[in-house]
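Structure ticket #2291
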Amino acid sequence: MLVAGLLASPLFAVKTACAQEILSGSLIDALTTIEKPELGGVFTYVGEANAPRAFADLIARDAKAMKRYTTRLMSDRKIAGGLTAWDHEVCATLVTYYAGVAMPGIKRPDAKRLKALNDCVLAPVMDFQEIVSRRKK
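Resolution: structure written out below.
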């Protein structure tokens, strides 16, 4: 009886919801783009609000992943005319990383990639579904 009462309490429900975080479509798409979908499980512990910054940190330390991700961003901008708010946050975080003093483990990308990141921050914001549907046309 006591266990049933605890399970029904709002406090327990909050803890359960936190343990079963759902990943955003933008994050799943980004992990697939950099060919590391297996990291989705790790991101369930990060939380949706911090996921764009965590993803930015991940690709800032992996030149191949950065290249794949920025190539996809440039393609989406060309095809759909904009990017998701999630992608904007990733790009803004990366621009901030590269604007200041070099951080340990983070190598600045070439000028072309830096320009692409800056351009992405300024791109119009679009819904994820709209971008994906335009990719398939």
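Closing remark: The chain has one domain: 23-135.
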